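User: Here's a structure from my thesis project, written as structure tokens. My advisor, Dr. K., wants to see whether a designed sequence matches the one we expressed. Can you design one independently, without my sequence as a hint?
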């Protein structure tokens, strides 16, 4: 979930499916699930360091606990969206890496991958940067003992959110449709119209449980020793590649789906129970991977 500079409609909740609203990757619930799983897997040393950073942070955009702070980057981005747009314009592109599913490259999606200017904190870096490169910049800051506390706190909060973002398939892909935001959908049996990106952000996550703890417990069942070993290999770039592949194979796979004419005269997709059956395991695994990998990243930074 994200806000493109050319986009103003997406979803926060299932009931908002037909109305324009700011888009939040995975929705708050998804990020809170990732935060819940990651916090459970922190080493004592990492947990102590993380708790200390968050305890001294007086930012009031979210509650101060780890799970709530996993939603912070969205709140920060949107805090001046309807006023000065300073924070919005500076950070909104950091939430995604729109690799075109038909021959796109990471370099293209990451604005040519310019290096962070020497001496520039990652939190003050250029607006034209993708989530892959921002995660790496913030990871380096978090692991560096010389990073000032204020910047290290920002690095932690961005990392806690961006790991979740890069695991949302439609945050790592595009099909000339604004990351699925321009794909109109109806979720059968409802005829209310929404968009594909929003469906993956919220509706799939809400199928996992009626509360964050319940959903996190369901997702945690995937975190076996064998899966942890598999998921702990690879780089941030690899995570984006996995998400892009899932978008191509599953999110954009409308085989057998009916179509409809949307409110603007375009063709939309009807997402039925069969589509949900294909998509839900992908979303569930992505959240599990994000929880494991976020914990690994933090444990490594504070080893």
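Assistant: Designed independently from the structure alone:
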């Amino acid at each position: 979930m994200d806000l493109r500079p050319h986009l103003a409609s997406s979803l926060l909740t299932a009931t908002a499916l037909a109305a324009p609203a700011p888009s939040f990757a995975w929705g708050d619930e998804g990020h809170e699930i990732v935060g819940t799983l990651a916090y459970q897997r922190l080493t004592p040393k990492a947990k102590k360091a993380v708790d200390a950073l968050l305890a001294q942070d007086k930012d009031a955009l979210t509650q101060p606990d780890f799970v709530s702070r996993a939603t912070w980057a969205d709140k920060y981005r949107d805090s001046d969206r309807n006023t000065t747009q300073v924070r919005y314009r500076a950070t909104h592109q950091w939430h995604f890496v729109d690799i075109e599913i038909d021959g796109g490259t990471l370099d293209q999606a990451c604005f040519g991958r310019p290096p962070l200017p020497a001496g520039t904190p990652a939190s003050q870096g250029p607006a034209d940067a993708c989530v892959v490169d921002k995660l790496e910049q913030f990871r380096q800051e978090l692991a560096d003992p010389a990073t000032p506390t204020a910047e290290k706190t920002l690095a932690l909060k961005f990392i806690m959110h961006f790991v979740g973002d890069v695991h949302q398939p439609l945050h790592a892909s595009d099909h000339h449709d604004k990351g699925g935001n321009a794909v109109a959908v109806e979720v059968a049996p409802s005829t209310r119209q929404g968009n594909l990106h929003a469906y993956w952000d919220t509706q799939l996550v809400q199928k996992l449980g009626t509360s964050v703890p319940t959903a996190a417990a369901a997702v945690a069942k995937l975190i076996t020793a064998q899966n942890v070993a598999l998921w702990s290999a690879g780089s941030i770039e690899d995570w984006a590649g996995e998400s892009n592949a899932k978008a191509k194979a599953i999110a954009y796979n409308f085989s057998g789906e009916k179509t409809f004419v949307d409110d603007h005269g375009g063709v939309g997709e009807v997402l039925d129970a069969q589509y949900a059956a294909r998509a839900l395991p992908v979303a569930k695994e992505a959240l599990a991977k994000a929880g494991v990998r976020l914990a690994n990243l933090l444990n490594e930074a504070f080893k």
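When you compare it with your expressed construct, this may help: The beta strands are 184-187, 193-195, 259-261, 267-271.
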